[in-house]
Amino acid sequence: MSFDLLLRNGRVIDPAQGLDGVQDLAFKDGKVAAIGPSISGEAAEVSDVSGLIVTPGLIDLHTHVYWGGTSLGIDADDFARSSAVTTAVDTGSAGPGNYAGFRKHVIEPATARILAYLHVSFAGIFAFSNRIMIGESQDWRLLAARDAAEVAVSDPDTIIGIKVRVGRHASGPTGIHPLTVALQVADETGLPLMCHIDEPPPSYEEVVDLLRPGDVLTHCFRPFPNAPLAGDGTVKPAVQRARDRGVMFDIGHGKGSFGWRTARGMMAQGFAPDVISSDVHALCIDGPAYDQVTTLSKFLPLGMSLPEIVRASTETPAKAVRRPELGSLKVGTPGDASILSLQEGAFELEDVLGETVTTDKRIFAEGCVIGGKWFREAGKVPA
C-alpha cells in the first residue's frame, strides 16, 4: 500500500485508543491510514520522528483567533505552526452580528481547523485591548438571543456551542443574568455552553450551579477571588456537585485565570482539570500564557502524567465540542497529528500573579500534520 506521509518511530500517545509506545503512523487522502509498530509500504514522504512524541492533533479549547476582526485576535495558522495546535476553538470572539466576517475572512482561508463558540452578545468580544476594556455582557441591549440562535444553527459544521462571559469585569451591573440568556439560547439550539467567570459578583458557586452536563466552565483554576477552593483549601461543594453531574472544567489560562496556588490546592484535592487550554489572545501571547504547549507544561510539576495531559488536549476537548473523531488517531479519522518533545532542564513557568515555578521538564512543539500533510515551522522536524 502507498501512503502520502509516513511518520516512523515516534512515541505515539493516543489516550482514546489506550496507546503509549513506539509506533509508525501513516496518512493517505487527508486521513489516518494506518498505525502500528512497523508499517510496510511506500510513501511519498517519510519522516523519522525517533525520540519525539506523536499525539492526535492538539485541540486548544479556548482561543481567540478572529485576527483583524477583533482587537484580541491572533493568527490561527501562525499559532498552529508554533504550538502544534491543529484545531483552535474560538470562544466568543464573534457574535451573531459579525460571525459572517469571521467565517469568510478567517475560518475559511485558514489551514488550521477553527471551530467556534458563538457569543450571545451581538458583536462578540469587541472592546478588549490594553487601553479599552469594556465587558460586552454589561449592556442588556447587546444580548441577542434570537440572532444568536438563528446564526448558531445556520453553520453546524463550525459553530459547536454558545459562549457567555459573566463576572465583575465582563458583566458588571447585569450580574449573572447574561448566563440565563445564554442558557436559553443553548437550550433552544441543542448546543453546549461555555461560560467565562472572572471576579465576583456573581460567585463561582452561583455560576456552576446553573451549568448543565456537557457545559464548560472555563478559567476553572483562577486565583482568589472566585477561586474554586474554600479558604480552608477544600473544593467548594458546588464545584464538586457540578463535576458529578457532568459539567466540564477547563483551564483557559489567558491573562488572568491561572494561579499556581489554586492549581496546587485543586490537584491536592484530586480535582484535575478535564481540559487544558491556553485562552491565547493578543494580550497574553507574549506571557503569561504564551501558547498551548507552555500551558500544558505547567501540569507536569502539578503531578499529571504526560498521557493525562495529552488526553486533556485531545480526547476530552473533542468530546466537549462533540467531534470525537478529532481526539484520536484511529484509522479513518481526520489526518491531524501533533509532534512534540519532552525536554529536560530548568524551565521557569509563571502564573497570572507573577509566581514562578521552576520545573525540570517542559513540552515543546516540533510540528504538526493537518489533513495528512506537514504544517510546520521550517527545520523543526527531520525529514
UniProtKB/TrEMBL annotation:
Recorded GO MF terms: deacetylase activity; hydrolase activity, acting on carbon-nitrogen (but not peptide) bonds; metal ion binding
Positions contributing to Zn(2+) 1 binding: 62, 64, 163, 279
Binding of Zn(2+) 2, residues: 163, 196, 219
Domain of life from the UniProt record: Bacteria
Matching InterPro entries: Deacetylase_Atu3266-like, Metal-dep_hydrolase_composite, Metal_Hydrolase
Alphabetized SUPFAM superfamilies for the sequence: Composite domain of metallo-dependent hydrolases, Metallo-dependent hydrolases
The entry's keywords: Metal-binding, Zinc
UniProt modified residues of type N6-carboxylysine: 163
NCBIfam families the UniProt entry points to: PRK09237.1
Protein name according to UniProt: Amidohydrolase/deacetylase family metallohydrolase
